[in-house]
């Protein structure tokens, strides 16, 4: 799975209403429209520009992590890539989104789709971690 760097995020002063009731995935509740608070997406997603940037996901190697082709990933370049985290990495110049792992001293970039083999970082390979994926965003409306 590759990614396209879209650029840094800018702070926003827009706040959205947060309703106090939970929306059921089955049958809707009767008219409950009490606004609990107003919250900004910056606060909700812990966006701290200029350390944050967006990438567009391409491919299906991370589907078991809930990341699909065309999704946006929010990346924190200030976070240290550690085993277990999903990272944006450059392996020999190719931008990838993978789960960082270690087997002993061996660094491994793992897909979240069993159809893809892990990518072992070998001696002589150049690996750069460009940041840690903190959230992903998917559009559910057509177009």
Main CATH class of the largest domain: Mainly Beta
In angstroms, what is the radius of gyration? 18 Å
Q: Tell me, what's the shape? A: globular
End-to-end C-alpha gap: 23 Å
Report the mean per-residue pLDDT as an integer. Answer: 83
| Discrete helix count | 1
Q: What letter string, H or E per element, gives the SSE order?
A: EEEHEEEEEEE
The H-level CATH homologous superfamily of the largest domain, spelled out, is Umud Fragment, subunit A
Oligomer state of the chains in this structure: single chain
- Record field, number of beta strands: 10
Number of domains: 2
Strand content: 35-45%
The CATH topology assignment of the largest domain is: Umud Fragment, subunit A
What is the helix content?
under 10%
CATH architecture of the largest domain: Ribbon
Quick recap of the structure?
The protein has 143 residues and is mainly beta. It is built from 1 helix and 10 strands; from the N terminus they run βββαβββββββ. Strands 1-4-5-10-6-7-8-9 form an 8-stranded antiparallel sheet, with no helix packed on it. The protein has a two-stranded antiparallel ribbon with strand order 2-3.
Topology (SSEs and partners):
Blueprint: E1 2-8, E2 15-19, E3 35-40, H1 41-44, E4 52-58, E5 72-76, E6 86-91, E7 94-103, E8 106-110, E9 119-120, E10 127-137
Antiparallel strand pairs: 1-4, 2-3, 4-5, 5-10, 6-7, 6-10, 7-8, 8-9
How would you sum up this structure, described in words?
Belongs to the peptidase S24 family. GO terms for molecular function: DNA binding; DNA-directed DNA polymerase activity; hydrolase activity. It comes from Stutzerimonas kunmingensis. There is one protein chain. The chain is mostly beta strands. The chain has 2 domains: 2-9 and 48-137, Umud Fragment, subunit A (Ribbon), CATH 2.10.109.10; 15-44, no CATH class. It has one helix spanning 41-44; strands at residues 2-8, 15-19, 35-40, 52-58, 72-76, 86-91, 94-103, 106-110, 119-120, 127-137. The strands form 2 sheets. It has an 8-stranded antiparallel beta sheet, with no helix packed on it. The model has no long low-confidence stretch (mean pLDDT 83).
């Amino acid at each position: 799975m590759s990614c396209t760097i879209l650029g840094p995020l800018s702070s926003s002063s827009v706040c959205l209403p947060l309703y106090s009731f939970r929306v059921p995935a089955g049958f809707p509740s009767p008219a409950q429209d009490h606004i609990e608070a107003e919250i900004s997406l910056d606060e909700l997603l812990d966006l701290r520009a200029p350390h944050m940037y967006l990438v567009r996901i391409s491919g299906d190697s991370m589907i078991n992590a809930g990341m699909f082709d065309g999704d946006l990933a929010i990346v924190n370049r200030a976070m240290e890539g550690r085993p277990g985290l999903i990272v944006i990495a450059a392996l020999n110049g190719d931008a990838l989104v993978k789960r960082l792992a270690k087997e002993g001293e061996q660094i491994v970039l793992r897909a979240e789709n069993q159809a893809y083999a892990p990518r072992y970082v070998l001696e002589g390979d150049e690996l750069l971690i460009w940041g840690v994926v903190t959230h992903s965003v998917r559009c559910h409306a057509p177009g």
